[in-house]
Amino acid sequence: MALRFVERAAEAHDFPLTIRHLLDTSLVTAADQEIVYRDEVRITYRTFHERLGRLASALTALGAAEGMTIGVLDWDSHRYLECYFAIPMIGAVLQTVNVRLPPAQVAETINRAGAEILLVHRDFLPLVEALRGALPNVRAIVALMDGDAAPPDYAAGEYERLLQDADPDFEFRDFDENAMATLFFTTGTTGSPKAVCFTHRQIVLHAIVANGPFGGLHSRGFGADDVYMPLTPMFHVHAWGMPYVATMLGVKQVYAGRYDPDTILDLRAREGVTFSHCVPTILQMVLAAADRRGADLAGWLMTIGGSALTQALCREGRRRGMELVSGYGMSETAPLLTVSRPRREGGSDEVEALTMAGVPVPLVSVRVVDETMRDVPADGVSRGELVIRAPWLTGCYVGDTRASDALWRGGWLHTQDVATLNREGYVQIRDRLKDVIKTGGEWLCSVTLEDMIADLPGIEQVAVIGVPHPHWGERPLGVVVAVAGHTVTLEQVNQRLDSAIASGEVSRYARLESLELVETMPKTSVGKVDKKALRALYAAPPVASA
Amino acid sequence: MALRFVERAAEAHDFPLTIRHLLDTSLVTAADQEIVYRDEVRITYRTFHERLGRLASALTALGAAEGMTIGVLDWDSHRYLECYFAIPMIGAVLQTVNVRLPPAQVAETINRAGAEILLVHRDFLPLVEALRGALPNVRAIVALMDGDAAPPDYAAGEYERLLQDADPDFEFRDFDENAMATLFFTTGTTGSPKAVCFTHRQIVLHAIVANGPFGGLHSRGFGADDVYMPLTPMFHVHAWGMPYVATMLGVKQVYAGRYDPDTILDLRAREGVTFSHCVPTILQMVLAAADRRGADLAGWLMTIGGSALTQALCREGRRRGMELVSGYGMSETAPLLTVSRPRREGGSDEVEALTMAGVPVPLVSVRVVDETMRDVPADGVSRGELVIRAPWLTGCYVGDTRASDALWRGGWLHTQDVATLNREGYVQIRDRLKDVIKTGGEWLCSVTLEDMIADLPGIEQVAVIGVPHPHWGERPLGVVVAVAGHTVTLEQVNQRLDSAIASGEVSRYARLESLELVETMPKTSVGKVDKKALRALYAAPPVASA
To answer: What confidence score (pLDDT) does residue A188 get?
Structure first.
């Protein structure tokens, strides 16, 4: 026999999961609700929807068409939100250009994406002007001036004026939900940027599932009474997809432009922001500014991702009345995979649970596996690589078959993160796979060793990497910046590690092989310790005896 | 140009929305969580999953195959939940047989569905045995004995023993998400039952969207700490789809078997039930039993649907510490369309808002339209028919093209409900379309007139129907059961209506044309006033002058 299907009222039943349908509800429930951009713009959802039509008309007049890539270089704004919708809604592909990359990489990503139209905030016009000769595909530049200044001569027009002159009655049509909607480049610490892409179906599924853990009819959660302000840049993984969720729910939205702690706190107070998300660095910045100003943060729910939320930072936020939860995901995963929650069974520390990566959201399958793809025990201790399946993961790195195959080895997306899983499904990220030290058949977590060593007096900063060893595979090497006037020895460090070995906290392989004292630690463009550079310096592989 | 698609890592990226994936998360996060059936069974999710494999193996051994319809006649149970999953997961179609229909209709629905295997609770074995000669397609009957009693001779086996003997390692495969998963019959007050059906994709989308309004990381909502017990029979629109949501979330689930107020209250207390849903009649039954027993109901969130939650009943529940919300939907809509919520802008009565049908959930488009499909104003007053689009509506009435075309006229699903919509998207159901009285070019709401008339002294029960009128189209006629010893006149009734007309509450056409005093009101099988019978008695159309 065969599966059973029925004749269907085609027009009625066929409901593609295209991004335009995220608007279906909020235009009815929240037409008068507001979308706010700094001090500058305040529009209703009704106007927002009309502006989507105008933007689609204006882009079409500039040559936009189905399948074309259109790039955006802007700070967080209502305009960016309009691009999140209008560009995919005409069947084009939104490239959210990472404006923090070095200029040459900005050009590289625009060219590799094949972007033909760019929307550029005035702050990035000098960058784009300098790159213009190196952007052969770009046929039109729209300037986003944030005020009355005239756009440069080479621009096809200014955003607001183009919208004013455009027809609001653009007829958006439905199409295949598997059409590409967005594309952007990951900024890994290794190699050149890789392009990930997401379809309409994936973005819609991500939005409705991401609404689940934050949803709620009453009080806390993310619902009609919330006021939403992203504090994750909109060029970064669709600002974690939450602007799509917020628009779908019809909540008030606030966009802060270029991040500045005073603007953020002003908007938070004036607009009554209750729901945000950011990386720990932004939270620290907000907390420091709030202390300086004596600002009240009570009732602000913040989801933290990007890097681990430390228990100390979580407690700091909670002391000020904030609610903090962790989320985990990556560019390749749209991004949401897990969200933290208090432990089901009492007794354990709530902060500890909230600072874990969390439990998988619906439709997300997680496994923690060894190198042969066998599951390690779900005991909260055994480590392995976290691999994932879900309906919203990038299908490939665009144009890079080899990297795509590696990403999807064995039919699971490889996160390159070393994690543990426990019996209640709590995922805890322990390390980046490439930062793990494989010694004597065991995995040493570099982060664990770094935390232990950082406790010693006289240490300002520490990194631990694996260096090749003919017998043990790898052995750990420490790189330390000492506090001025202090010195640190290998013996002191290994004494500390010996006591951890004695108490069973780490394996006996944890003793460092050697220690390097340095003046400054090499950093990546986003301020993380550059372990790739450290490996190049200290862990060059033995010369092959070929 | 054309839409852009990318080469994809097929095995990885193609993630069909099939029902089996609702299990992906909870098997990791809630393997030790419990599913409870009365006093009889207590299994973990791990065992539940193993039993799905056993059930699939056992059914396959009985001849089950892709595309086959398999019918279930059971009270609410863990077995029914197993059938919700295992039957669609093997590619078969689950028929949730409505056991409240008259025997001849039970046979008719089983035959029209083409069910070849039936799973039958011992309480329904006499029914099925009596019907066996009239069920030519049925090749195997599995008895669900709830204990040690032997199954009847004609049964292929007993559920628990079949599972015991079956292989737990059934290999479920993925397939087209548009395959039919479930099928059941609506029990409208008119005509013979109509079959609606839902696909895997529809059920999964319904589950993840339905999680949104009830979801929540913290405290209230529907989350990991909740304990779920449906009080809407599982044969009725997948118990509103909430067993799928509960299983996806990995919450503790409690199944009450045949509804009995004492069992329900015992289970509520013993298992700590916090989240349920039911029709108002069941809520009334629970409240009465709780009063009798002095039972505590605090902290129990109940979603009410099926019929309107009256403000009085809502207040009664709230006084006992329950939280009450309304939901609205129908068999054709899987069912969830709207959920009530407190008003965004304060000042209005919370109970009033909570007893409305509510606001549409994400991806649901609602319109209130006149007979030419033009939208009536969203002013909370203007009435029209509620029409719907959403990704989980039945595509047709199976095998009934004419009814399907009428259901989907103009590309929107016609609810046959008369509603109003306001500027915040609150839907309020005012009447059934066929109960509306169309007079002088206006719609009179029969329910509104009935409520006004019921206020008069001496009235036990009242129904208002439209009777044909050569000039006005229709005119209202009242049918009244008077309290013993009282009488009621047309003049008394019209005096009451005149004052409502004077104050603008109803149109001037509301005055009744005539009044019939009757001894008893005709009722349908489910206890509603049978307006079809009243129309046959009092509103026969004028004989055509052919």
So the answer is: 58
pLDDT tens column, A286-334: 999 999 999 999 999 999 998 888 888 999 999 999 999 999 999 999 9
Nearest CA in chain B to A394: B13
Of the pLDDT bands very low, low, confident and very high (cuts 50, 70, 90), residue A12 is: low
Q: Cβ separation of B219 and A214 shorter than 8 Å?
A: no
Chain A to chain B Cβ contacts (< 8 Å): 277
pLDDT of residue A435: 82
Q: How far is A474 from chain B (nearest CA, A)?
A: 33
Q: Say which residue, A122 or B483, is predicted with more confidence.
A: A122
For residue A17, the distance in angstroms to the closest alpha carbon of chain B comes to 8
Q: Which of residues 173-212 of B touch A (CB under 8 A)?
A: 175-176, 178-180, 197, 204-205, 207-209, 211-212
- In sequence order, the 6+-apart residues with CB closer than 8 A to the CB of B446 are B431, B435, B436, B437, B463, B464, B465, B466, B476, B531
Which residue from B31, B215, B250 is facing A214, i.e. has the nearest CB? B215
Tell me which residues of A are annotated as active site.
Answer: 186, 332, 438, 443
Mean pLDDT to the nearest integer, B448-474: 88
Q: How far, in Å, CA of A236 to CA of A329, rounded?
A: 12
Which residues in A lie closer than 8 A to residue B225 (C-beta atoms)? 344
B126 touching A (Cβ < 8 Å): no
Sign of CA dihedral A276, A281, A287, A291: negative
| Reported ipTM | 0.89
Convert the pLDDT of each residue in B480-517 to its tens digit: 999 888 989 999 999 999 998 998 888 888 999 999 99
Kindly list the structural domains of chain B, giving each domain's residue range(s) and its CATH number in brackets, ordered by start: 12-199 (3.40.50.12780), 436-538 (3.30.300.30)
Separation CA B250–CA B247 (nearest Å): 5
B299 at the A interface (CB within 8 A)? no
The answer to whether B46 contacts chain A (CB < 8 Å) is no
Pairing of strands A41-44, A34-37: antiparallel
CB contact under 8 A, B9 and A408: yes
* Spatial distance between the Cα atoms of B305 and B308, rounded to a whole number of angstroms: 7
- pLDDT tens figures, B281-306: 899 999 999 999 999 999 999 999 98
Q: What's the rounded Cα separation, in Å, for the pair B160 and B145?
A: 8
State whether A221 and B224 contact (CB < 8 Å). Answer: no
Mean of pLDDT values over B180-191: 80
Report how far residue A478's alpha carbon sits from residue A465's, in angstroms, rounded to the nearest whole number.
Answer: 7
